[in-house]
Specification:
Length: 316
């Protein structure tokens, strides 16, 4: 067994990154650009020549960490080819292989025999509660203990999803400061489906007035809170802007997923929207969103008036 080769099975990106950090710390290595590389094995993204060179070359100063996200290994031929196995057996570097799906028993046993395996499961309730509390405290949110109990029981055992939901809460409270209670949590978390938001943003960015009105009416029928709605739109627009910057730098899909800390399906949908987006319209919408914050905090505008202004400006 090569103790420098680690195999991680799990889908929670935050927990996986924590495991990678722990492996690095155990070997006294830093996860920086000089000695940490990440690759994706799916969709023909991987540069095999570059990867093979990294796997076989020893860093002059210290050992490198190479993370390879395979996403889903269905059988031994999809990744563990003879050439790759030979390289992994003799690599001078630490290699971390990530697989998001549970392995078949036969393949799992083969991997256990050759590498150090780590199963990254779901976050425990204790870990969830600690993460939620720390996030709220770090964002200076005022809340009672029953809010923690509610969030812990109503959010899934996936820290990546929890992070996304807490971002919606903290974004809303920055625009509309107030103590966080259960009623407000119920209004914010899982208020809108991803599909509905994607459709509305896509209509905004294309400037299609009829579609903007149709999708807005659909969201309004769900008793949306205007400020929560605008805060959610702001989050998505800023993600699109970051995605545009990363694409201009020619980052791989896997690297973008890691940087934005969102799942691949979410990012792929953002890429689809960005592909058909007018950059000027996107920049104008972001500016309008920030003006909304000024109107609320400084001028004290009412929520309904604020939302109507945003829609009128978006239709222009």
């Amino acid at each position: 067994m090569n103790n420098n080769i680690h195999f991680i099975v799990g889908s929670d990106q935050l927990l996986i990154q924590q495991k990678i950090t722990k492996i690095a710390q155990e070997q006294n290595l830093m996860l920086d650009s000089n000695n940490y590389s990440k690759y994706s094995w799916s969709e023909n993204e991987v540069d095999w020549i570059k990867l093979k060179q990294e796997l076989t070359t020893q860093n002059f100063f210290n050992q490198k960490i190479i993370a390879i996200n395979c996403h889903e290994i269905k059988n031994k031929l999809s990744f563990f080819q003879k050439e790759m196995l030979q390289i992994l057996d003799h690599t001078p570097n630490t290699v971390i292989i990530i697989n998001e799906k549970k392995l078949e028993k036969n393949l799992e046993q083969q991997i256990k025999n050759k590498f150090t395996m780590h199963i990254v499961g779901k976050a425990t309730n204790i870990r969830k509660n600690k993460y939620i509390r720390n996030t709220l405290d770090n964002n200076h949110v005022i809340y009672q203990e029953n809010v923690l109990f509610f969030l812990n029981n109503n959010l899934p055992n996936n820290l990546t999803i929890i992070k996304n939901e807490l971002e919606k809460i903290t974004t809303y409270l920055k625009i509309h400061p107030q103590p966080l209670n259960i009623t407000l949590c119920q209004q914010i978390i899982n208020t809108y489906s991803v599909g509905s938001i994607f459709q509305f943003i896509e209509a905004l960015l294309k400037g299609k007035q009829k579609e903007i009105i149709t999708h807005y009416q659909n969201l309004e029928s769900k008793d949306l809170n205007p400020l929560i709605f605008i805060a959610t739109i702001q989050t998505y627009l800023l993600l699109l802007k970051k995605l545009q910057i990363y694409q201009q730098k020619q980052y791989s899909l896997d690297k973008i997923v890691q940087l934005l800390k969102k799942n691949r399906f979410f990012i792929i949908n953002l890429i689809r929207i960005l592909r058909n987006t007018n950059e000027q319209i996107m920049n104008n919408l972001i500016q309008k969103i920030y003006k909304m914050e000024y109107y609320v905090k400084i001028l004290g505008w009412k929520e309904k008036t604020l939302l109507e202004l945003f829609l009128i400006q978006s239709l222009q």
